[in-house]
Specification:
By secondary structure, this protein is α/β, with parallel strands linked by helices. The chain has helices spanning 18-21, 50-60, 97-104, 106-130, 148-163, 176-183, 201-214, 258-261, 323-329, 340-353, and strands at 43-46, 69-72, 88-89, 137-145, 172-175, 190-198, 218-220, 225-232, 235-240, 243-247, 249-252, 270-280, 293-298, 304-309, 316-321, 365-376, 384-386, 394-397. Helix content is 28%, strand content 26%. Strands 3, 4, 5, 6, 12, 13, 14, 15 and 16 form a nine-stranded mixed sheet that branches. Strands 7-2-1-11-18-17 form a six-stranded mixed sheet, covered by helices on one side. A three-stranded antiparallel sheet has the order 8-9-10, with no helix packed on it. It binds flavin-adenine dinucleotide (FAD).
Length: 400
């Protein structure tokens, strides 16, 4: 059972991430917020993050699209985890193999990793094809190895993946000296490099929603779906804070909040809070000296800091996880507040990892942090497809 016994809906006054602070001019941010919802729709999508946005676009960009598609969003449009992430579009290149194969077997583990790689290429093609200005930066990323224990784990995962026939053609090992030189992280015991990207996910999501709205999507912001009940076989009533919609098809793109409307998912989808930060670099990391790769500076599997410097403005997005974050994650899933101790620990770790960082001038260093709620599954893969035990037509799409 989930430790959350009551249904939990997105909190009404969430803190703002960097991605949100830089996109508040978007004219569709509060679309339909004061209107009543229609009484009927062909499709109702609940949630306006990347999952909901892509579903809407795929449905409408179709030779025979549904004639009316409605999207309900409890808060501002695109304000869930998509608006709160740490900037990475970073496939798992090899490291997850050990954990995935233990849970799903070798064949599935290889497929999961292959799929992650494919998603990066699909994202790249999609963004380029549609010309979405979302600061997409296709670059190299590195796992920077900071402990002997983690070095051994990584080596084992790498060689097991290799022995199982996994594709390592894009993966490069860097020994300690080279790793320190290339990453500028003192103390690196080694590094592993592969292809990934960074992006501004809110700009991406807004770009997709713009295209979907141009094709007829109606969005209702500040409109919480409160329940989904069956009227009769194949027909649903979506009750919301702005009226009830009757529809044959419901798409749950609610991520961490899924079990509020589908309570039996409470034991499967666990809401977990994570935190990221905006950091202005010191002079040594500006201009010609920006970091050229993105990093996961890793002390262990559960103790790491993600570092993604944006070529567009030099800002560093600093995310991560450690024991303190694990404890913080047990908090009620509210993304209104920021844990100051996690923020100061993260910036301290960044300062100590990058020996060129030096003393920060006024205006440099940690600017602010934000939190977001992830939807975690016990088998570490997303739950996508028809909702088990419900008639087909009632569709579930969730991304972890
Ligand atoms: C701090 C942090 C860092 C992360 N870093 C990365 C990263 O670097 N790279 C990466 O790939 N992923 C990262 N993630 C994960 C990634 O952000 C999510 O997996 C992804 O954005 C999920 O998209 P989604 O559309 O499924 O869900 P969301 O974006 O969460 O969208 C769900 C939406 O549904 C709405 N909603 C929920 N319930 C209701 C309801 N009853 N009625 C109406 N609306 C409702 C919510 O308000 C929300 O807008 C991070 C997440 C966090 C929190």
């Amino acid at each position: 059972m989930s430790h959350h016994d009551e249904p939990y809906f997105p909190s009404s006054q969430p803190c703002l991430s960097y991605w949100q602070r830089t996109t508040r001019h978007w004219s569709r941010l509060t679309s339909g917020a004061n209107e009543s919802v229609p009484q009927t729709a062909d499709v109702v999508i609940i949630g306006s993050g990347l999952s909901g946005a892509l579903v809407a676009y795929e449905l409408l960009y179709n030779p025979s699209p549904p004639s009316n598609v409605v999207m309900l969003e409890a808060r501002e449009v695109c304000s869930g985890a998509t608006a709160r992430h740490a900037g990475h579009c970073r496939p798992d290149a090899y490291r997850g193999y050990s954990a995935y194969s233990a849970k799903h077997g070798s064949e599935q583990a290889i497929k999961i990793l292959r799929h992650e790689k494919r998603v990066l290429q699909l994202m790249k093609t999609f963004i380029e094809t549609h010309g979405i200005d979302c600061d997409f930066n296709y670059s190299k990323t590195v796992d920077v190895i900071m402990s002997q224990h983690f070095l051994e784990y990584v080596k084992r995962s790498y060689s097991d993946f290799d022995a199982a026939g996994g594709d390592l053609s894009d993966v490069t090992w860097l020994e300690s000296e080279e790793a320190q030189k290339i990453t500028r992280v003192s103390g690196a015991l080694g590094a592993v490099e592969w292809t990934a990207a960074t992006l501004h996910s809110v700009k991406l999501c807004q770009g997709i929603l713009d295209m979907a709205m141009d094709l007829g999507l109606a969005i209702f912001a500040n409109t919480t779906a409160q329940s989904v009940t069956m009227v009769r076989d194949g027909l649903w009533n979506v009750e919301s804070s702005r009226g009830t919609i009757t529809t044959p098809t419901v798409v749950h793109a609610t991520n961490a909040y899924a079990s509020s409307l589908l309570p039996f998912l409470g034991s499967i989808i666990q809401p977990l809070r994570a935190q990221a930060h905006a950091v202005i670099p010191t002079q040594a990391f500006t201009g010609q000296s920006l970091l050229t790769q993105t990093y996961s500076i890793r002390y262990s599997l559960v103790d790491f800091y993600s570092v993604a410097q944006r070529p567009r403005d030099g800002l560093i997005i600093l995310g991560g996880a450690n024991e303190e974050i694990q404890r913080d994650r047990l908090n009620w899933p509210d993304d209104c507040s920021v844990n100051k101790s996690i923020a100061s620990n993260a910036i301290e770790r960044l300062r100590s990892a990058l020996s060129e960082w030096k003393e920060e001038a006024e205006g440099e260093g940690l600017q602010y942090g934000w939190t977001g709620i992830l939807g975690m599954t016990p088998d570490s893969v997303p739950l996508i497809g028809a909702v088990p035990s419900l008639p087909v037509g009632h569709t579930l799409r969730l991304i972890q």
